[in-house]
Predict the structure.
Amino acid sequence: MKNLKLIFSTVFFLFSSLAAAAADTVIRGARVLTMLDGPEYRQMDLVVRDGVIVDEAPAANATVIDATGKFVIPGLTEMHAHVPVVRFDQGAERYREDVLFLWVANGVTLARGMMGHPSHLELRGALESNEVLGPRLITSGPSFSGRDRTVAAASARVREQKAAGYDLLKIHPGLPPEVFHAVASTANNEGIEFSGHVTGSVGLIASLEAGQRTIDHLDGFVETLVEPTRLSNRNPSWFGADLAYDADETRVEATLDALLESGAALVPTETLLENVAGALEELQSRDEYAYLPPNLRTGYSNAVRGSANAFTPDSAKTFLDLRKRLIGAAFRAGIPVLLGSDSPQIFNVPGFSIHHELQAMAAAGLTPFEAIATGTTAPAEFYGQADLWGSIAPGGSADLIVLRDDPLADIGNTRSIDAVMVRGRYLSREELDAGLKDIRERYRDIGSAPDDA
């Protein structure tokens, strides 16, 4: 965590100090949800200089934006993102630009990439220095999975990724137990986070004891709630969906105690599970469907059709209701819950899906303020960067969303975006609409798109 904070603090300082002089921007007259004052708005003007909120009078030549009657909240995080990989011969550079723009257009100003690639290291710096428009990036390296078969090779990969400058290691399913523990011990020695899936042969509790920092998708959670004998001779599906009927919720408290003791966080990606258990026609009828390239429309539709055998209407409800109860119980127990939807992934259109995820957090029992905190202050505090982002305060990055409607009255109002500011760059509704229109029209007119989503 200290190394990650040092990287961000250094780049943040350099950008703030060396950015070319530009006129201040003033957002005037808005009701500002700082996230530091609880669920209370402050009527205040925001002065932004060189990408940072300042507690000073604006320069005489400041650009003034009238936001009277509007609401300002901090930019949101996507804590389980898949950043596309650029392969120039496949046209993927443009697709990556589209994904980055879709995140920003929906108010996502920080993404944690959970499917890393060497190109993401360069992208991280380009985003931070505003050479590329998109959210600030925390990035994993290429994942550890069943392909990692030996202790020596896996341990060497940990050291290589640490030396390369990745922020964390991504755990995928399939690691043999001895290899997982070698990855964990080497990561702990090297001082690099490892997060993601739970290794099935290790289990949730042992993964936490080994030092895993985030449990994504609630992976391994349902398995802790059933008799161990139920885990044999099963046909696993979708993070314990096959076990939902057998879950013994008297075991929840002990599981939460283990999470609390470990200091790990949950990244539920609830909307992903709602999608795979959902109705294909409804998913295809959403407005954001237009922002999926044609090949992903086909792939995602096939994935939902393929998952249909795993769910009946009753089993889907039982599974999703159980997950909502687990999320709510974890939040009330004081476990960090971090907003992440797993985008782009099955019908999780970048940016749009984070607003579905906010509604899922509300359905799990969180208030609108608490749901917003999962995507602002909670991840900033988890990563030890609360002084840099996640709230609205002097000295912090100017990552903001201007809303027409009150998000504390209805969490769905986070969609009423009037403008987004990302590291001081103000994107008006007109500019956002123009970018979205360009993507819609290009995807409508082409018959295929890059495969590396």
Remarks:
- The chain has 15 helices and 15 strands.
- Residues 5-21, 448-453 have pLDDT under 50 and may be disordered.
- The first helix runs from residue 2 to 18.
